[in-house]
Amino acid sequence: MLKKFSPAKAKEWLCRESISVLYTVPTMTDALARIEGFPDSPVKIISSGADWPAESKEKLAAAWPHLKLYDFYGTSELSFVTFSSPEDSKRKPHSAGRPFHNVRIEILNAGGERCQPGEIGKIFVKSPMRFSGYVNGSTPDEWMTVDDMGYVDEEGFLYISGRENGMIVYGGLNIFPEEIERVLLACPEVESAAVVGIPDEYWGEIAVAVILGNANARTLKALCKQKLASYKIPKKWVFADSLPETSSGKIARSRVKKWLEESIQYK
SS3 of 178, please? Predict the structure, then answer.
């Protein structure tokens, strides 16, 4: 086990040792792909901790067809909630998968009513793997939520829209940054991307995209116009040399937002 993730060191271990399972977050997997870090032998890749864009999985499967890709959705409080098998990923590439054994999911609207398939609401989970309680002595409810938003389809596959507290309210319309980021990350010239909401006197909030990579704003706007409703297209673009990450490899969205508000001139 490596004390700290390094793409070069991970590549060395994968190619030298008889490793059959690799547990990663998507940013680590993408970093290994950029340096062709996967071995010729079969490896099960289990990804969790952040959204794994369908385009990234498809590119990985095309370049290394012997890899088996598993995508897990879960939270610190609930452990694993859903999983997507390699077969599931081919059939429903944008889904977070189906619930684990003995785990139940409900999607509820703002009024506490169950949503219909395809209708976005707040994700509630009932699981025997949920945590036992807080340090102050209080215990969690039987049905728990961490304020993630999403929907299920007719077959019970879960789709994650984003985190409620990260949602951008643009002129009364709700925008999930994760949806925009998935589109931006489909561009080969984009290494990483973060979308945040910045206060605006007229609209309330506007979406600002921060990009790491060699793409330009014109190209990315054209890509967004093909994939997104017009109100979801970022109104401002910032190109950075790096993006802050959490210790688990996720984009530190709050730090990106603070950085923008304090010091950056938008393009």
Answer: helix
Hey, which bits of the chain come out as E strands?
A: 21-24, 44-47, 68-75, 79-84, 98-99, 104-108, 121-126, 148-152, 158-163, 168-170, 173-175, 190-200, 204-213, 236-239
pTM score, whole prediction: 0.78
Percent of the chain with pLDDT over 70: 98
Work out the number of other CB atoms within 10 angstroms of the CB of residue 132: 6
DSSP string covering 13-31, please?
HHHHS---EEEE-HHHHHH
Residue pair 44/22 in contact by the 8 Å Cβ criterion: yes
Q: How far apart are CA 96 and CA 190, in angstroms?
A: 23
pLDDT in tens, 72-82: 999 889 999 99
Tokens of 251: 């984009």
CATH code of the domain made up of 167-263: 3.30.300.30
Q: Nearest Cα to 163, choosing from 250, 223, 41, 35?
A: 250
Closest CA to 175 of 145, 195, 199: 195
So what's the pLDDT on residue 135? 84
CB-neighbour burial class of residue 66 (10 A; exposed 0-12, middle 13-18, buried 19+): exposed
Domain map (residue ranges) of the chain: 167-263
Using DSSP's 3-state secondary structure scheme, residue 118 falls into: coil
How many residues does the structure list for the chain?
267
- The string of pLDDT tens digits covering residues 95-119 is 999 999 999 999 999 899 999 999 9
